[in-house]
Amino acid sequence: MQLTEAQVLGLAPDAASQKAGQGLSGPKKWVTLGANTQALWGECQGSGSKPYQTRVDFSDLNTKCSCPSRKFPCKHAIGLMLMYAATPAVLKDTVPPGWVTEWLEGRQAKQSARKEKEDKPVDAAQQAKRQQARENKVEGGIQELKVWLSDLLHAGLAQVNPQTLRDRENMERRLIDAQAPGLARMVRGLNFSAHGQDFPGSLMRQLGDLFLLLQAFDRLDTLPELLQQDVKTAIGFTQDQKALLLQDGIKDDWLVIGQKTESDERLWTRQTYFYGLSSQKYAMVLDYAHGQPSFNGIYAVGSVLYAELVYFVSGFPLRALVKTSSVMLTEAEPEAHPNLQSMLDGYAAAVAQNPWMVAFPALISGITVSKPDRGPLFQDSQGQVLPTSVYDQDFWTLLALSGGKPIQLFGQYNGGVFVPFSAFVEGQAIALKGGHQ
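The line above is the sequence of SWIM-type domain-containing protein; the predicted structure tokens follow.
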């Protein structure tokens, strides 16, 4: 397996981990070092009497270390991979020690047990009973939401006060209890701030999306099959992932083109965007972790996986599951929109298929980054301004990387703002901090 420095640094949870890992990327502090086709390993001498034991599984770049760090991957794993990327000959041992083989065998056993559990047949009668009970709860929540929205509009948006905000929180909690998390997120996102840009137009668009969704649910049986599924997904109904994985997916060389990690209290969410080099399709894989961002699979921005991805059912398929994969870590150059208008045309076509699509992934070429007196400016090759609110470390990173020359940007467009997750400069993918917390 080949690794590059940029790909390894893209795995680091923060800038401090990148710097600390670079400090351990030489053999000086390592007591043992080894590598074979399955894994990397090494023992790094820290402040204690026993060296820290670090290992990396090549199958998915998962890591484990005996150090006390709560970051994942830790600085020792990053340093070990950086050393392998720069000077693989330094890792001379080829026979893994017992603590490496035990870890690899343990991971394999857990994966087998998980698959065995997933393969167990379900009780169809109990499943149908649970599904009906949930639909009844959702129906109850929707009826209360309709009453709340009607009262809100009859009172008028000029009457928004602290009680309105408390009512919004109560409505959100009620929808969570009703097992309609999609509706709960839409209610939580309602922006009542009169000081926000485009108020009350932005709020009216949000309320319009809610009304459209509720009307669509009332007429669910009359809608095309794919649109029915998009309505149910927007409300918060889940799809049977076990059944999805039984279907054939798209086998392709998938470029990891961007990533975003967020936390909500102790729940971590990671969105990883893939781009099929042959199919020229985007796919978004969603992963969750509790306590700390230690996700099952590790996907480095800029790496390429040969994988089979299965899409969730939708009029505009985007979310997907990884059915099988193997990491190749090679360079790749994806197709990009030539300008902003091309991206907007793509967004319009996607919304026509799924009106409740939260974010549209897009790669745009020919973006020039500059800083005139009035603030940061992103322009395409035709002089059109890319709407983005980026004015933090990512802006200065992009300004330095581009050096005034046009670059490619990948990110999400939500109908108003484009949020960049990565940049492609001279064929190399650079992960941006905005894609991570």
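Note on the example: The first strand starts at residue 30 and ends at 35. The chain is about 40% helix and 25% strand.
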